[in-house]
Amino acid sequence: MAAALHEAIAANDLVQTSALLGSGASPGSRNGAGWPALHAAAARDASAIVARLLEAGADIDAVAGTDELIDRERHAGTATALMVALHAGHEDIALLLLERGANIDHVDAFTRVDALFLAAEQGFERAVERILLRGPARQAKLFNEKSALDAAVERGHVGIVRRLLGAGFSATPAAERLAASR
Description:
Layout: H1 2-10, H2 14-22, H3 37-43, H4 47-55, E1 64-70, E2 73-79, H5 81-88, H6 91-99, H7 115-122, H8 125-133, H9 148-155, H10 158-166, H11 173-180
Antiparallel strand pairs: 1-2
């Protein structure tokens, strides 16, 4: 039944997904590569299916310890569904997961990034704001010794740079220049 559930998710078929869950398919089922159903839905921008899986009891903070293709890019590591949604560019899914209490502190063991880093890198201002509202900002140097602020500066996300500086991130000359622009 796990394979059928993953096929329904891949097709973004909410009716079939719901029917399978109603017939006893586990909302935490993994595909052959070990990818949880919730991660698959988050990667495919299937917000209604994400919500349905959560209603059925999917573990919002399950970690995928596998390699998986997301929009032709290989994603490896130990990511949560929140991190998968952010990495795949699906801010609305990320916001849904944040609203439902997804863990914001998990650091992927392979990529060394967390949800705040991914949201800042992608330019998702609403997600950055929601993450910062949940607790003190992590200023740790993560991927390639960069912080979320460094990632936002590199991508030119002025609003996010300003928000992170306002949240107490240590200012760098590049961040100050970008925040003062426009």
